[in-house]
Amino acid sequence: xxxxxxxxxxxxxxxxxxxxxxxxxxxxxxxxxxxxxxxxxxxxxxxxxxxxxxxxxxxxxxxxxxxxxxxxxxxxxxxxxxxxxxxxxxxxxxxxxxxxxxxxxxx
Length: 107
What we know:
Helices cover 17% and strands 30% of the residues. It has 1 helix and 5 strands; from the N terminus they run βββββα. It has one helix at 83-100; strands at residues 31-35, 38-42, 47-53, 61-68, 75-81. The protein starts with 30 loop residues before the first strand and ends in a 7-residue tail after the last helix.
């Protein structure tokens, strides 16, 4: 029997810009999605968090954490990116949001 390794814990701090939002949308998964890099099994992740990662001796990054809270310990995945990649993701999200619901600049 092998013991699981003990993992370090990172405490995420809430900043002044922290916002909690809630959307009532139907689940997509579990399902298999064909991506440009091949098929992946997909589950819905009700938690979403963006953060700045500052590590000593390593380049700073922006990260997106998607997670599923569970009793005890939940599960999650983190994607790190540099500033230009974060800008590209932000621009993509803004374009898709406008397609979904255009901003009324006259009100």
